[in-house]
Amino acid sequence: LIERGLRAQLQLQSIVTGQLSVQLDILPNRPARYVGPVGDLPEMPTIPSSMQEFTETMESISFQDMANDARQVIAGLKALVNSPELAEILTGVNQFVNSGELLGIITHADKAISDVQALVSNTDGRVEELSASAEFTFVKVNETLDSVQKTLDAARQLLLIAAEGSSVRYELEQMLSELTATARSIRLLAEYLERHPDALLRGKPGGP
Fold first, then answer.
1. Cα(129)–Cα(36) distance, integer angstroms
2. What is the pTM of this model?
3. All structural domains of the chain
């Protein structure tokens, strides 16, 4: 039975009287511990009681170090909360959100998206409706790409300070998704026009 995992363990029977009992159980995963036989009596391998394991665990914990660490964390939080830098950041974020500048960025992004949609449509052979020359159209494509990229960079910076789950963060994430796709489309258009400048005059291959 011992080889199969028979172990003895002290159990507390009564909290009031402190009476203990010996419980035998098959615990093959617990190593056998011997303290030495008493006379001719056979020795039963034991395992620590729950109270002994708890006591050993508590003794291994440095509560003084935990208290010191907690004091340092609290001191750091107090310094952060009371720092003028944090107050300035929070004030700046609040002013930015309420100033209408965020709405301006979103509006500007919408206009940039509309511009590129018009440019892409006119690449199908209707460029003359948008500009009087191929050079002007190519410049407008690059200007639009630059504008979208700047708006994208600004939105990414704002996303870093927007609170999780806030409506502002949701709008920024939606705008970032649209701007990323838009910037990719404009970049492909600019690269195509750079390789095929004559497409501005006769349209893309297969166009009307």
1. 102
2. 0.33
3. 1-28+46-56 (no CATH), 89-202 (1.20.58)
